[in-house]
Amino acid sequence: MPWTNQGGGGGGGPWGPPPGGGGPNPWGRPSGGGGGGPQPPDLEELLRRSQDRLKRVMPGGFGSGRGVAIVVGVLAAIWLASGIYRVEPDEQGVVMRFGEWVRTEQPGLRYHLPNPIETVLSPKVTRVNRIEVGYRSAGDGRRGDRDVPDESLMLTGDENIIDVDFSVFWVIKDAGEFLFKIRDPEATVKKAAESAMREVIGRTDLQPALTEARQQIEQQTLQLLQAMLDEYQAGIEVTQVQLQKADPPSPVIDAFNDVQRARADRERLRNEAEAYRNDIIPRARGEAERLVQEASAYREQVISLAQGDADRFRKVYEAYSLSKDVLAQRMYLETMEEVLQGTNKVIIDGNAQGAQGVVPYLPLNQLQPPAGSPPKPGQQRAP
After folding, report:
1. pLDDT digits over 191-202, tens only?
2. 220 with 197: CB under 8 angstroms?
3. Are strands 93-97 and 129-133 parallel, antiparallel or unpaired?
4. pTM for the full model?
5. Distance between CA atoms of 80 and 72, rounded to whole angstroms?
């Protein structure tokens, strides 16, 4: 026992006899009294039983061979069990044997040889990392970004300078390669992204880079950057390249805006001219087509009339050949009818005696006023 009862029959364990008498327990309650509720365990009894069990397992104590073997076995079991580990769903387990990368484990419950033989690193492979090139965002709560001209100024394909700011988003594709193939992953991604962007901008003219070619530049940069990282065996996958800004340099941006406005005016005037041309040309073509159709119709009309007159003359000639006197008399009468139809006429009768052959002619049609004209004063309208 770790302690002995002293003081004769009045001992109370390691705490001594309780004041006022009572049983040997540390709470000062009588051991045989009634009292309500459960009684606390007897610590002395528990310790004594534990020592008895230990003596039965190791009769010679911890110094015996069996005791040493048991202790060594327990320690070995604990050491072997320390190799059990768990890889989270957003991690990859990189197992190193004496510092050398031997394998990569996927998420789940895994085992490796205990330390110091094998150790495990578990980097987060689903976390999206961001690299800023050409600018630094204000991370202290202040507004605005800080420009980095050494990274953002680039030369275009038509030998103009452009200020490009962009971001690169990437994740870990292979944790082993990420940890052991490259020394500084973030610096590597940044330098490779800047190099890829400069190459793409160097193949692109200024005007498309500022306007419609932004998406194309992002896609080409992503593909080129991924090919470079795969060649480095960096274990990194680029998910997105995002252009933040693509403008002319600050000292010349006003002059460039003037040029852009002039180009916009030129484009507007060109569009207006195109619209006018598209309006006037169809109308002119339609007018020309109408004139051509009218001329064709007139030509057909004249040809038809000429052919009709020729056919009529031919028929008259055929009739004249059959009966010349009758047809000549008829032609004379028809001709005189056409000539005298609209002229004033005086009729002279050569057989009249004493009147010099003149017959009075009363033009009744001239005495009647035109239809619809009001009658003169004192004159009645003829019935």
Report:
1. 999 999 999 999
2. no
3. unpaired
4. 0.51
5. 12
